[in-house]
Fold each of these.
Amino acid sequence: MRIIVPIKQVPETKSVRMDESTGTVIREGVESIINPLDLYAIELALQIKEKLGGEVVALTMGPPKALEALKEAVAMGVDEARLVSDRVFGGSDTWATSDALSEAIRKIGNFDLIICGERATDGDTGQVGPGIAAFLDIPVLSYVNKLAEINDDECVVHRLIERGEDVSSCGYPLLLTVVKEVSDPRLPTLRGKKKAKNLDIPVWGEKDLGLDASLLGLKGSPTRVAKIFRPKVTRECEMTVANDHTSIEAACANVAEFLTRRNLI
Amino acid sequence: MNKNDYKDIWIVAEQWEGEIQEISFELLTRGIALREQRSCALNVMVFGDDISERELRGLLARGADKVLFVKDPALKYFLVEPYAAAMLDIVEKYSPETILAGATSTGRTLMPYVAVKAHAGLTADCTSLEYDSETGDLLQTRPAIGGNIMATIKTPGHRPQMATVRPKSTSPAPILKKRGGEIVVETTTFTPISKIKKMKHIPNEDEISIQDAEKVVVVGRGLKKAENLPVVRAFADEIGAALGASRDVVDRGWLSYPHQVGLSGKTITPKLYIGLGVSGAIQHLAGMRTTENIIAVNIDPDAQIFKVADIGIVGDMFEVLPELAETLRKHEVKQ
Ligand SMILES: Cc1cc2nc3c(=O)[nH]c(=O)nc-3n(C[C@H](O)[C@H](O)[C@H](O)COP(=O)(O)OP(=O)(O)OC[C@H]3O[C@@H](n4cnc5c(N)ncnc54)[C@H](O)[C@@H]3O)c2cc1C
Ligand SMILES: Nc1ncnc2c1ncn2[C@@H]1O[C@H](COP(=O)(O)O)[C@@H](O)[C@H]1O
């Protein structure tokens, strides 16, 4: 079983700060991590490999610094890694990102499964997984929260949907997007870290992927950011201390009044 | 590509066992407002096998000009390949200027798949939509970076322009009497193949999921132990709310993962969020801060949750809760 896991390096959410005057995000000095939801994808891939044998390849598109994310994946037990990095990929939206990643996946070749995180915590679209599947013309099972069965011919998964779980089976090649519940990510090991240090990770640019230049980066992206602004803070919290019978009663009466005013009861 | 070759607004309605889902009516509300701006038609596409005429008429009664029902046994429930093929057929045949779908598990899977094949721009999880009157570009606004900023996205050089819309971010379109409109039933022109086989469906134990609920009561670690849950559950039931949880509560096994609100759980936009013993960590806020009305009970006056709340009660949830239930009960009687 050959499994490819596309992972994204994202800024650590806790350290995201805003420039209050411009309403933009300050990127300098922000620590980068593997998209937390991609760790579940990596873990699931490793478990499948442990069961069926084979190989797990981590793939990312990003700046040279994204090598760190790949090394961390290797330290967790991933066998190989590829970095897609080139200035021309800058400004890619989910269409162009899916295009470049699917091309890299073609170049890696010979895969059975692709496992993506449900969404990245920075872009937060969840569109890249299904997008890659569309470029590769393979089926996608999204929101997978449980791998019920897997063998060399097919797998059975549970999908977490609005009204419950759908149980589906599918053969390969297949792309899964997974949610947190699917696995419990392991920590990097010392041995893994050593391996990561010595592993040669190929970096692929535009030329290596042989993509049509007009479809890359910002040029190839159908969407444009027209404006970024800070949401109006209309909320002003009305605080009440409720520490004895009278104040609790007053606080609750206030809630009832609020709910009535807003037509909620 | 000539932008003028594309016209009209199309929404993707969702059905479950033949019943049109509420998100479809919310999309109609969006579509009706946009139709006004653009002076064009508002059409609905719906995929399924067995949908009654009455259900389809409901879409017209709520404001659609045309309903196109693509009917095939392979479209009975959502499977990405036949659904995408059916939708691409519509894109090919009708050249829609704008396509809206719900940011549901179906919409968020189908739309990116189709957008890639149609080389269309797609914006996820929009909370507000409006046309630029000159260019006809749809200005699609969505929260980004955990709700810290809003981004407005457009698709200047491509059509169709596609967007998924957050469930519950608007109210469903009401039924209007005496509306005309056309229902077209089509069969698929392609051979619908799906490599995926749906084997079964396991329904939720809870009646409403936190994403569908109008009101959500969320518990945090302030709950202290699972044995305290019944009090909160009873309160939630009483006010007709679904039960949500912070990650710490889910990690401790007090509630299951589908209840989790936040970055690695669900993003919810109910009308009312009541947080009990939730500290309001940034990862939690990411999943709920765009809620319209927020009430928080926390013993710590400095809890972050108060920063996004409308009403903050600094107190012990176990003392406040019974009183609150009682007050609301009395209030009901008075009404
Ligand atoms: C990558 C990543 C993803 C994450 N994703 C999520 C996510 O999706 N959702 C999520 O929720 N968290 C998420 N977290 C975790 C998040 O950072 C917090 O740890 C978590 O939200 C805290 O949960 P809590 O508010 O229940 O617990 P705590 O932070 O421990 O807060 C408990 C609160 O209860 C109050 N309290 C205690 N006793 C009482 C009482 N008797 N009455 C009233 N109040 C009381 C305390 O004052 C305190 O504020 C994520 C973290 C990371 C790193
Ligand atoms: N630049 C990237 N490189 C590799 N994988 C990515 C990249 N962007 C997104 N992905 C994958 O696609 C998933 C969804 O991301 P997104 O659509 O950006 O929310 C992530 O969890 C990753 O698995």
Amino acid sequence: MVTAINDDLFSQKIVDDPYTYFSQIREDDPVHWNEKYELWLVSRYADLVWVARHPEVFSSEWWKRDPRSPYPEIDESDMGLYQYVREFFSDWFIQHDRPEHAEMRMVVHGYFNPKAMEQWRPMVQNAVQSLLDEAEERGSMDAMKDFAVPLPLLVIAQMMGMPNQDRSFIRQLAEKLLFLGRGELDRMQPLADGIKGLLDYLSPIVDERVKNPGDDLLSVLAIGEKKGIYNRQEVLANAILLLLAGHETTINLICNGTLALIQHPDQLKAFQEDPVGRAVRATEECLRFDAPVRSIQRIASEDIELNGKTIRKDERLRWFISSANRDPDVFTDPETFDISRHPNPHVAFGSGIHHCLGATLARLEGQEALKMLVERFSNLDLTVPVENLSYQPSITFRSLKSLPIAWSK
Amino acid sequence: MPRKLKVTVDTNVCVGNAMCEHYASNTFALNDDRQSMVTNEEGNRESEILEAAENCPVSAITVIDAENGETLFP
């Protein structure tokens, strides 16, 4: 029997456990019209990959093109802020289609290639080590605040050539930007405040990099401006994108991965038996099992049929990574957390031309963080009942609010 | 004469990021599944083909010296 599908994607139940919800949708109505938010939901792996690999049909320019009102609704009085926020996000390179997207991505693509990223591994290892050194004697920590947040923030700030002491200020502003996947009626104000704060902070630094470029990531963007590919506003917007995407997603990888390991003691034990040998596949399985990004949005550029449904031009669509990664058509025993799973063609980083620019960096940080955590600390466990953990009410990010853990001293 | 190369794309790994098309447009193109395929192993200079391989985000491209079998990438 087909039960009615709950369209309130921001309900606490679906936020906390998207997996049960999507196992029903995947079965009953894989391309589902969500009436409440006027939004198509794509839940099967094959459909997700098809949509992601046909950017000429499913455009990324939805902030700019979406003719509908924002969902969930916002305060009527915030429409001015909405316009401001919309214009800002439209400058992100991931909010462009070809040919502009390719040109903009090329500016930064080489910086993140696997060979270039590998050079950062020793720095990441040192950072992980010093964070774990600080925590070790205490015997417990909030894995979110004390480990998962500082690590990627340190790495991306260093890549961008930002002073270390600015990190907590940057994080405070970045947290406001995370409202972009949230449902609160008054979310436009923190979003706009976060954007303004980061623009004010970055503007003078970018001015300096345009005059005296170095080899850091901000300079790479500044050189893109000199070549005429980015204008100044785009340099700033994309610097903010890299800053945000460069840490928020990895925070979630580390926390969600740590939680998955703690909840599956047999897998944690297997990982601890051979941390170095198992780090790569274990990290991939963490990415599949509880992916840092839940879903990605597109907008139809033309009328198109997808799995028996007709999607009309200008209708918005969201594909759910957290659903596709548990699709039984692709993964054997998809609900089983198996750190030796191979092959593991998860779509945590998306697919197609917009496949995550920072995927290699995220993998590297995830591998080192999870490996060194299990290597050093035995008897890892939660210090609160698992039911007490909760997630940010976002349909974009799968972010725990905190993750208190302890180990044997 | 430039040396002959054997260039392959592992479709089990390729995610269709298509950056190879931009680095070496006469060598790589997307197939019907929107994954990369080699259209002409002599389509670009060796340095461009190696740059495409190096910039593949999932390291799906292998480049071999066709005459002596030496692996040039990875």
Amino acid sequence: MTNGGAHAAPAAIVLAHVSKIYRRYSGRQFSTLKSALLSGNIVRNLRPSETFPALTDVSFAVPKGSTFGVVGRNGSGKSTALKLVAGITKPTSGTVEVHGRISALIELGAGFHPEISGRENVFINGIMLGLSKREIQKRFDEIVEFAELEDFIDAPVKTYSSGMYMRLGFSVAIHVDPDVLLVDEVLAVGDEGFTHKCLDKFGEFKRRGKTILLVTHSLSLVERFCDEAIWLDGGRKRAEGDPKRVVGAYITDVERQEEKFLASTDARAREEAGEITEKPEVGPLDAGDAAANMFEAGEGRWGSGGVEIGDVRFLNDQDEATHVFHTGEAMTLSFTATARRPVNDFVFGVGIFNAEGVCVYGTNTHIEDHIGDQLEGRAEVRLDLESLDLVEGTYKMDVAVHRVDGAPYDYHRLLYTFRVKSRVKDTGVYRPRHRWQFAGGVKFKMKI
Amino acid sequence: MWHNLAQLPRYRGLINSLVARELKARYRGSILGFFWSFVNPLMLLLIYNFVFTHLLANRTEGIQPYALFMFAGLLPWTWFSSALNESAGVLISGGNLIKKVLFPAEVLPIVAVLANMVHFFLGLPILIGFLIWFQHVPDIGDLIWFPVVVAIQLLFTTGLALLLSALTVHFRDLRDLLANLLTFWFFATPIIYPYMQFQDYKFWFDINPFTHLAISYQELLFFDGPFGHLRWLLALGGLSVVLFFIGYWVFDRLRDSFAEAV
């Protein structure tokens, strides 16, 4: 033990109290000399009239050889942070330090000229990225092979498809052999095969002890690939450290936002539906018709009003009201029913619909052998769903109380929204609990 | 500023390949290809030659052969005016580079000036062709000043190009203004008419920097006798150095706003 402290790897990137304020000139897209002269002050026209803080007091250090993820919503300052590290813009205050050669995968093929051939563009792009002519010569075949453009390299770049363009840009940038690689959401450029090649290349970089700064919306990529991560929110650092923890905190926050949004849509839907209205076309005497109508009508609220439904809430397993659930979690629907006069012919019913309007599930107390006997004053109803085995998506719910013959007292049609989240992107509607099992000559590798 | 200026020689390779790309891209996809760089000045020459030797023939006394006289001034003017026109828009059209790549922005106007200088050089064989055709032999001793004139024009143009390109980012209408200004400037400069025939306007000629470049070219290539305009030329050289530093200073001051304003 020398100093008794933990030995930290030297940092490749250090941001210290970095703030970036973007300026908006004159509030217009751009100013003209004419307007500057008319307003009588050229100097004032060159001064920003509005400012917008893109980053506020952000500090972090990326140790050499590590892979560092940046997550956050759109507009949270991720790309600004990357541009500052790349040196494209300068911080308004604070310092940015980078050690080693940088290559930025920000805008692929940014310097390509459409009229000249891929070959010439590779050379010019390489020189722009800091390579010498000889270095490019040496790597040329590798670059072309990686981009899978052997047959097209002498055609003008304007004849390339956008995928070819991006692949060539990516290939040049990655063959710069940087010490620090900055990646901004570029894995979406190619087909499946190319994306895998890119990830393999990143893996190779990692093994060779290069530093990678990764900005992405692919949270699973951050979790699997990064050694550390930060979460930016509104230009400020919200969390830093273990990627799993950071991503977890970020997801929780996204869900909280979603919850807020769903709660407000719900409230709006209810407000629009307003009081119970008599709908003569709905509320026929036989139940079959009622069911048919249930699938046709849009959202709203109707019925005779003899019994009123209120305070509809979704509860999680902690009995807290929420609109966001995870696949397989328990969910409780709770509501109150208030009868103006005592009634003895009543049925409580619910229906769950997915975003396409498909009825996922529907039931009522009557068909489940709870025959209504007496409803007087205020009653509380709870429906416990032990396990919400649905795939990810937004679902809407009907809640109703009606007579056995189908005539509604109070019908809340698609007024309640909840969202089911899942880490697995499976498809369909229903997600049965399941597990894969294998035996014999079959092997799998971990997906990045 | 000095730090950035010191970095400039490091971008030699980049500037070289961008100039080459500019030239290639311009002539690719056109049938006559590289010949356009000859055809364009030739067309201009043909038009002016027709006007001044047929329509306004009496005004060209003492400047015969007129085609040669005019070409000596027209060729450098074409370099100057196209370089300025191009550099005014070069930061805006190259916005992708400035916003997304770590890229020394001053390279763009410099490339515009240099690419047009190459065009100027490509036009020189035509000029030599004319000299041979008219059996006009310029003073060989004076010709050593030719590279000096070119160098001064290069410095002067680059200074203006830096200034213009940086300001155009903030004042987009400068480009429209510039096109008109250049037309005016062309006719205010003794290129299609001889300087000494209009002594009344001597003051206005003298404060026009391009006058001294045009006259220098004309004295070296067209008029007999010693290179009498040397003093003016060297004064312009001094001015060009100052202009270059002013242009670079303004460019450097506005540099950080480019990525946000283009």
